[in-house]
Amino acid sequence: MKVYSKETFAEAYQAVLADLMGPEGHESNPRSSSTKEIVDVCIEIQNPMLSLYKNKIRSSQSKYIAAEFMWYFLGRNDVKFISRYAKFWETIQNPDGTVNSSYGNLLFNTRNEHGFTQYEWALKSLLKDKDSRQAVLHFNLPCHQSLTNKDFVCTMYASFLIRNNKLRMSVKMRSNDVVLGLPTDIAFFTALQQQTLLHLKEVAYPDLELGSYSHIVDSMHIYSRDFEKVDSMLQHEFIPFQLPTIKKHLINAASMPSPYLKEIEEDIENNLEDPYKISNRLSYFKEDDMLSFIYYNLFKNHLV
Q1: Is the model's pLDDT at 265 over the cut of 80?
Q2: Fewest CB atoms within 10 Å of the CB: 2, 196, 284, 301?
Q3: What single string gives the DSSP state of each residue in 234-286?
Q4: How far is the C-alpha of 172 from the C-alpha of 190, rounded, in Å?
Q5: What pLDDT shows up at residue 32?
Q6: Domains of the chain
């Protein structure tokens, strides 16, 4: 296994890209798509708050990350919402206009036969037993195993562990595209780790701290269409950038989206463009870094 253990995502990401474009990146052609690939990769981010990056050619895609946070934490899986920000989703949608890879729908909206969402199960496992090894969340499901499925979920499962009074998170993926997938996936999962920590601190473990984040991938790859872009990125510095702090919950412990997210959702659905109203809303969210980040990035084009 190839391990990249770094303080920040920026450091790990630069190293992964360099290795993929170098001798360690081996040719692979799944579904007749030319890629360079490294198998069995683990990225460990020692400080998950530093999970964004800046680069002169391509930085963390803040607007899309903000939109994905909304879509996921609202528990939605409709292409209508997310295709405003990335048309790619339209190419893999189901006949009913949904997709399978909405992590939020899988974690917060779908309940098993025992009445638990995946997120509720993980929280309750840790609240019942601080040393639990059962706080797992499943993503790729048996129902996705269809030969006609266009959207075979890349993430297999995630798990939380509390050790040495720190909340650690690990995500296992079968496949990860380093340009379009990896940076946004890690942004969401580290935000989820932060949200989980906030719930656990408020309910049971007030002194709990944020631990490391590990991202384990069977096939870490880059498509040939992105070779030139990544070569250009590697000519420039990768600067760590902090994930916004969650102060007001994005979801509650029962997996329901917060009223704040619902208010932002309403502005999106109403196609709010009034600069005065948008400025007022930004002032309303100014005391919460994450809500401000989401709102600003989704509506900044309408500000004067």
Answers
A1: yes
A2: 301
A3: TTS--EEEPPPPP-S-SB-TTSPBPHHHHHHHHHHHTT---HHHHHHHHHHTT
A4: 14
A5: 82
A6: 2-258 (3.30.572.10)
